[in-house]
Structures
1.
Amino acid sequence: MCFHFLYQASSNTLRFVGFEGESAQRCKARLERHQRTAERAAKALAEKNMRDLLALKEQAEKNRLAEALDVEVKRWSSGKEGNLRALLSTLQYILGPDSGWQPIPLTEVITSAAVKKAYRKATLCVHPDKLQQRGASIQKKYICEKVFDLLKEAWHKFNSEER
């Protein structure tokens, strides 16, 4: 007769349950499958806990940096709120030289098509998911999140005025 484990959550224990007529080989396979499943679940839980811990640390670091970085973003965007062309033409000042952003002169974003093209490039450069993939620093992620939000607001205003 073969036995396998049955977990009882109410008592937090393992209980053996047998099946009549089950071969020893089948019983062994069932036990091994149970062990593999338990190991995968434990590994997945450990990985999830590690990701959660890293996210908490990153959020704490963001909160610590927020005050100084907010001043920097406000200084850059001051007087340009809602003006997509002005934001796009000065983006290099907030992103810095290592961002990969190529400066765009104001004279190159006169037509709607040019503004749309520049906006698409800018959102690819500062999009939070893209930064995550590139492994950007917490400081860079925070600045880009704020810039992304400002660009998005200006884009909506630009679209509503162009129609």
2.
Amino acid sequence: MKNIDNGAIAKDKEIINGGEITKVVLAYSGGLDTSVIIPWLKENYQNCQVIAVCGDVGQGDELDIVYEKALKSGAGKCYIVDLKKEFVKDFVWPVIKAGSKYEGKYLLGTSVARPLIAKALVDVAKKEGAQYICHGATGKGNDQVRFEVSIAALSPDTKIIAPWREWDIKSREDAIDYAKDHGIEVPVTKKRPYSMDRNVLHLSHEGGDLENPEKEPIDDLCLICTRPEEAPDQAEYVVIDFEKGQPVAINGQKFDEPLALLEKANEIGAKHGIGILDMVENRLVGMKSRGIYETPGGTLLMEAHQLLESLTLDRDTASFKSHIAIKYAQLLYDGLWYTPLKQALDAFIDSTQETCTGQIKMKLYKGNCIPAGIKSPYSLYSEEIATFGEDDVYDQKDAEGFIHLFSLPLKTNARMRAKSGLEI
């Protein structure tokens, strides 16, 4: 067993505003990293009181043992803050309306939760009079930026402790050894050392054998979604209703609470293997990483929303919004939720959703969302105009003048080049 020197960076002499470090708020999940951080903080920061804060964004039964585990690991207090409803209504829905996917694929399941958790950390720190907030994000990852940028925006004078940038623990295997030395039970083993993040929108898997992009994920990796090979052999139709860009009903069942609707979408999507993504992405800190994401309900809703917009947005607005979606995804991925630009983009996106009301029918089959019908009272589609059959609405001869004017700059350029002896 590797020996970890945990006293190498002791902070016994550190002073904050003329006083000792007495309280540190820790972003706590009950997982490997944050579990070992509690005793490490006490050993290295003047035996400070560790106040564990777990933001419940839909981790499910993972939270059943969190409270007792935090106290058993050495925390003086543990807050479990229910953020699920706020998460879906104020954080997930804006991503759906924006149509944002990082690098065209990732539905931002981890990224979008971090600003809300950071807000909960700041709220508890203010309540407890703690001037330090600690997180367990690795120094190689994106979450360290997301947490710290959000905390800076909400509480600029709060200081940060980031153990992965300080301690002598170099790997998850080291952390497992440290946990065993301190009698802490952890939910990972050296045989299944994945780093996982779960909320009501998604479940991500990183690390372990996934770090080799040549390797296919193990068959039992997915914990939410059915493998497409094992999904039902019979397709299922699902109908989703939207009002002003927000999903409000599934298969005729109205949901007043967004959380309940997303949970229903998760149930349906997971059954058919919808939303399993294996991608190599570009991290904010400059490296590439591979992740496996399970986002069943989010994928279903995102696909349906984009289909509805194909009916309700004009060409120029749809084109410009697609560019906005890319920028919006970049902001969220980089942790820039609490910024003036993000707020301004929200205003633009909301304006495009005024007519995004209607009903989408999808056919789900072995990992695929197949369009099966769209209708909206604000549809810009006209069958009378678009038909290839006979009509009395559109004079096809009008296209001749349009094409002449549309191609005029090209003709002018070609004549100039020919006159000048240049190759056309």
3.
Amino acid sequence: MKFNTHLQNLPIYEAGKPIELVTREFGIDPKDVIKLASNENPLGTSKKVISIIKEKASNASLYPDDSFYELKDALANLYEVSSKNIIIGSGSDQIIEFALHAKANEKSAILTAGITFAMYEIYAKHVGAKIYKTKSKEHNLKELKELYLAHKDEISIIFLCLPNNPLGECPDAKEVMDFISIVSEDTLVVTDCAYIEFAKFKDSKKAINPKELISKFKNTLYLGTFSKAYGLGGMRVGYGIANTEIITALHKLRAPFNITTLSLAAALQALNDQKFIEKTLKNNLEEMKVYEKFAKKNGIEFIPSYTNFITFVFDKKQNASQIADNLLKKGIILRNLKSYGLNAIRITIGKKKQNKRVLAELKKEI
């Protein structure tokens, strides 16, 4: 059977290994498995959210309100924008896909940092678009500007992952705004802010304000998610904020009922539990310092992170893949970054007890 030619060299996104797979493969009790590979919230899900999911479970046979009125209204109040400026997606990555199908094709290109969220490139290849990346791994805005100006007529979308996954770095918001100011109004600039809650909690200079962003630049699309700080990775709810022209175009690509009845209820309730968010952010910042201290003490290079994970980069004497595999056999699931061309491991910041065990086992490997 013949398929579209651009699928031939298209990579498949490698998700973090599930607990069930490790349990089956190594015969480890699920209770003894620590999964810190997919940047999920280690505190789980808000009790208020769990309660509303149970309450709404009897409605699982019904489609959700496809207007997502209540959730859009709540987000609009949070960010001081109009609900007409919001689109809801099955995770923010679905909105990334919408953006690529709306703006890019085989005659255009996208621009990204050297190492960033893999789905930008994968979705770009879905539509046959070319990919330009900076030589620098992180978001080097000077290099991004130079590449953009050199290929201005080709580039239809610029993706800025703020903070960046899988590295964790994040430029200041002012630097980002200065960069966007040189971009043509016909080029869509996507600011993917899946981890922004962690960034602005650590350093207010990193905070991207959606209202300011879309008011100042009509060609911007802000992305947010409930998968990280809000602890709803399994519910798959993301959102985009942009001017109405962009939102209208993206809605033409959205299938009806693209999130579930329970996902909708969970996301709405999650917004109402700010105490859970505060607890999440405090745990993350405190435990991040533990990882940084460990890295410094043991001579491991790490990338200062504004997310809920930290990336350890190993020297040539140490093999990150081997380390990750050895820890996996002990029931510790971390993210090997070999597929990104890095001798590195990305570790989601867990709870204190989890982190203590992870670092104790990691110490044995190095």
4.
Amino acid sequence: MSNNFLQAIKARRSIYAIGSQLPIAEDRVAALITEAVKNSPSAFNSQSSRVVILFGAQHHKLWDITKETLKKIVPAEAFGATEKKLASFAAGAGTALFFEDTEVVAGLQKKFAAYADNFPVWSEHSTGIAQFAVWTALAQEKIGASLQHYNPLIDDEVKKQWDLPASWKLRAELVFGSIEQPAGEKTFIDDAQRFRVFK
């Protein structure tokens, strides 16, 4: 099927073999991430997503924090594999940290009490859409990325390191960089198991 948006979606893959070089300037990457998130939909136009973009030494600091955090809880005999995985992320050019502002969510719960139970769920929808939009936008620039979830283990140290508001809840870490090895073939389950069309 020929559709520019669908082609962009197909280009977005989990790239685990990444390097520190970028095909475009860091400022351009930051602008791309900013525009992708700004134009992502959110329930009641809440705009609850927050993003911290880390390059270079700041990016490495994140993965040092993650390593030190995991060292305290991963058994020593298993830590070698964990350390290797974290090193592969640190080898990238940067990381986009995705947060949701719980203060915004709480405000909406108070303002629209009838939907109070839904706002945390819709907040998760918002961050997922924002993450997908950024990931796809990066792929269009030939930048590889993979989405990681070391939250909530690293939340406190991350907030402390970058002096972030207490209300920001870390939801994911999108690590990105040059594509050193493309993703393998993507497989799909049968459409009949996933889709039903009625006319």
